[in-house]
Amino acid sequence: MAIVDDDAFIRAALARLVRSIGYEALLFDGAAPLLSYTALDGLFCVLADLQMPRISGIELIQILAIRHPALPVVAMTAYPRDATRLRALESGAAAYLTKPFDADLLENCLLGFSSHRNL
């Protein structure tokens, strides 16, 4: 699984949360580093913040929907709005979470994906 967030504190907290429910996490400080990762097809899913500089989470979702359509992307935001949720889902997000969220909510979201790979 990949965690993409420009905030180092949030990345670290999400990595601990993800590991606490039994998944491994690769951390990326933005969309560009994730997109240059050569093993995207081996990922279980991507947790992506929507508010990031340069390439936004929405843009990342759109790119991944074209390049890796089988890779689920979970959109995350600390600034929830109905319009943002709708745009994320229409862009190809498999789910939309509002930060902060707990382990149970994240685990239920991840269990909804059919593939169960470690990363």
From TrEMBL:
<dbReference type="InterPro" id="IPR001789">
    <property type="entry name" value="Sig_transdc_resp-reg_receiver"/>
</dbReference>
<dbReference type="InterPro" id="IPR050595">
    <property type="entry name" value="Bact_response_regulator"/>
</dbReference>
<dbReference type="Pfam" id="PF00072">
    <property type="entry name" value="Response_reg"/>
</dbReference>
<feature type="domain" description="Response regulatory">
    <location>
        <begin position="1"/>
        <end position="114"/>
    </location>
</feature>
<dbReference type="InterPro" id="IPR011006">
    <property type="entry name" value="CheY-like_superfamily"/>
</dbReference>
<feature type="modified residue" description="4-aspartylphosphate">
    <location>
        <position position="49"/>
    </location>
</feature>
<keyword id="KW-0597">Phosphoprotein</keyword>
<protein>
    <submittedName>
        <fullName>Response regulator</fullName>
    </submittedName>
</protein>
